[in-house]
Every structure is written in C-alpha cells, then in structure tokens.
Amino acid sequence: MTPQSDEDEVWRQIVASFNDTAERDSADQPWPDSENVPVEPVHRVVKPAADEDADVEAEQGDEDDDDLDEDGEGRFEPPVPPPLPKLDLPTKLAWVALFGGPAYLLIAAMANWQMEGWALFTAVAAFIGGFVALVVRMGDGPPNDSGWDDGAVL
Fold first, then answer.
1. pLDDT, block means (10 residues), the chain with 154 residues
2. What is the 8-class DSSP label of residue 35?
C-alpha cells in the first residue's frame, strides 16, 4: 500500500463512522486522579488576649480578616485613577454647547414652552458648533512626545 491509499482508507473509515454513537459515554468514564484537587479547610488561629496590648493586636487582626474573602484570599483593590486632564476655556464651551443645546430643547418640549425661531436656531447651532469644535480640536496626529520613530515600544 502506498501512503496515499492509507490516508484514503483512514478517511473512508472516518466518514463511514460519522453517525455512529460513541462506545463509551463520557459520563461512564472515570475522573482522572490527577485532576482531583484536595479540599483543605481554612484554619484560623485564635490566641487568647492576656492584656490590653493583645486586645489591640487582636482587633487589628480582625480588621485584616475583613480584607479577606470567603476563600481566605485578599481582595483586589485597584490603584487610584490618574486625575482628569485640565480643559481650556474653548473646550469647556464646546462641551457646554454640545450638551446645552439639546438639553434646552428637551426641557422646553417637556415644559411645553413656546419656542421662538431664534431660540430653536440657537440651540441647534450650539449643538452643531460644539460638535464641530470638539472634532476640530481633537487632532489626528501622533502625540508631540513620540519622537521621530512611530514604531513599537518595547
């Protein structure tokens, strides 16, 4: 037999047994011992307090236990996020216009106010102007401190 005919025969066997059921159901297979994880109970040592200093230490130990979850492992506390960048006056005005125009229209519609044509135009123009101002100020170039090479940083 050639290697090609062996592969063809194996392929035919795979195709022929496609709809056959498995000989052993996965529920019947035993669980491998290497996959078993031993269950160890959490042990806590409690020492009797002899004097006030020991009471203080015991109270501090109780506070430390509050940081532990039910498995006895510590909780993750993320670092404090960096402060938001300071915005200049034109950027602040653009954000106010972007949200202020639609907010005025929404409040005026909900309160059933009579809207003049100039107020309606001003609200829509403020929204569009604020959006355009933010997009224009966004910039699309690399940061100024990137240097001459825009390659990967290792």
1. 81 88 66 74 64 50 55 80 90 94 94 91 96 87 64 67
2. G
